[in-house]
DNA sequence: AATCGTTTCAACCGCGTTGGA
DNA sequence: ATCCAACGCGGTTGAAACGAT
């Protein structure tokens, strides 16, 4: 089923908004409230599509929008939240009053990503061998949180790429009878696992699982995701070979562990949300006081 | 002063989700 | 159950601003 363009009619204006257009939009929304964006342009006397109006309002004209540079607290919050939820800009924006998802996304892509890369590079140049191995080592060993963070994401990405190539090359050898019903969900599981396992959430899980039930740790999580334990950090990234990846999805009995792991991740995020809401919007600055990375000292 | 390369960010695009008919 | 309009989101684009030569 195809989708019709939101505004394919000719004569609809695009591009930067003029002050008069802004005024029309603001006046209308203040009088009638946001909503029904499809009809809004006509009712407000604007020669724009509704989508454009909504975007202009939510990203620029809304009265509660906070302009100006990001504070160190906001910076650190973005860093932490991104480590947990990834590129869920709207979720991150929800924790930063007055900031839009678009603004945070732009800030991440232009400022933070660059710094993270530089920090990761600084770690990588210290060693030898494949860059991936260094990233993996950095992910677990670096004393620099920012470099660790970058390395974690990069490691997960490299692993996902490796698996993708494996899956595509071995797809013809998998019989439809065994693979068809569950393959998609079970292939997705390791990526979720890896992302979480390589994050601070994973750290929490490792600690909590060992303490509480004795069935946690890499083995349980790896089994839960249907991955041999060593592949939590695979060999060329510091562990085993990828040939064993064909065993993904064979450990159905570990669903409970996997779910528990995901639940823990959500609890972590909920906890963070609670902390932000109940006590402080931002993590304490002194948490990062001993971080040697430029990322934590971006503001002179 | 002119040119070129880089950075920034507002705006657009396309896809997924949702809810009502 | 199905269709589809409306909405929201994340990725991408492109023009303006800025800096270097």
From TrEMBL:
Question: Where would you find this protein in the cell?
Answer: Nucleus
Q: Name one GO cellular component term.
A: nucleus
Q: Which Gene3D superfamilies match?
A: Homeodomain-like
The family database entries (Pfam families) matched by this protein are listed as: Myb_DNA-binding
UniProt KW Nucleus keyword: yes
Task: Please provide the record's keywords in A-Z order.
Answer: DNA-binding, Nucleus, Repeat, Transcription, Transcription regulation
In which domain of life is the source organism classified?
Eukaryota
Q: What Gene Ontology molecular-function terms does this entry list?
A: DNA-binding transcription factor activity; transcription cis-regulatory region binding
Myb-like domain segment(s): 9-61, 62-112
Ranges for domain HTH myb-type come to: 9-61, 62-116
InterPro entries tied to this protein? Homeodomain-like_sf (IPR009057), Myb_dom (IPR017930), Myb_TF_plants (IPR015495), SANT/Myb (IPR001005)
Keyword Transmembrane helix set for record = no
Gene Ontology process terms (BP): regulation of lignin biosynthetic process
The molecule here is called: Uncharacterized protein
Upper classification of the organism: Eukaryota, Viridiplantae, Streptophyta, Embryophyta, Tracheophyta
């Amino acid at each position: 089923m195809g989708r019709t363009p939101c505004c394919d009619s000719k004569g609809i204006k695009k591009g930067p908004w003029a002050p008069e257009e802004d005024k029309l939009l603001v006046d209308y929304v203040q009088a009638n409230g946001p909503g029904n964006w499809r009809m809004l342009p006509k009712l407000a006397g604007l020669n724009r599509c509704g989508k454009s109006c909504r975007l202009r309002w939510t990203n620029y004209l809304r009265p509660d929008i906070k302009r100006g540079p990001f504070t160190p607290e906001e910076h650190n919050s973005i860093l932490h939240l991104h480590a947990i939820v990834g590129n869920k800009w709207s979720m991150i924006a929800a924790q930063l009053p007055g900031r839009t998802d678009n603004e945070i996304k732009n800030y991440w892509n232009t400022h933070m990503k660059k710094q993270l890369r530089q920090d990761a590079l600084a770690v990588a140049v210290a060693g030898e061998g494949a860059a991936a191995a260094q990233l993996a080592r950095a992910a677990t060993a670096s004393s620099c949180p920012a470099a660790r963070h970058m390395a974690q994401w990069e490691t997960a990405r490299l692993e996902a790429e490796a698996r993708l190539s494996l899956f595509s090359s071995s797809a013809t050898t998998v019989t439809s009878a065994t693979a068809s019903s569950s393959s998609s969900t079970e292939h997705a599981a390791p990526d979720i696992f890896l992302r979480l396992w390589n994050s601070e959430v994973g750290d929490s899980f490792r600690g909590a699982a060992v303490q509480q039930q004795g069935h946690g740790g890499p083995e349980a999580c790896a089994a839960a995701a249907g991955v041999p334990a060593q592949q939590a950090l695979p060999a060329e990234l510091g562990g085993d070979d990828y040939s064993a990846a064909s065993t993904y999805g064979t450990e159905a009995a570990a669903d409970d562990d996997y779910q528990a792991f995901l639940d823990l991740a959500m609890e972590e995020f909920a906890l963070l949300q609670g902390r932000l809401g109940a006590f402080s919007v931002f993590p304490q600055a002194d948490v990062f006081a001993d971080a040697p990375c430029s990322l934590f000292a971006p503001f002179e």
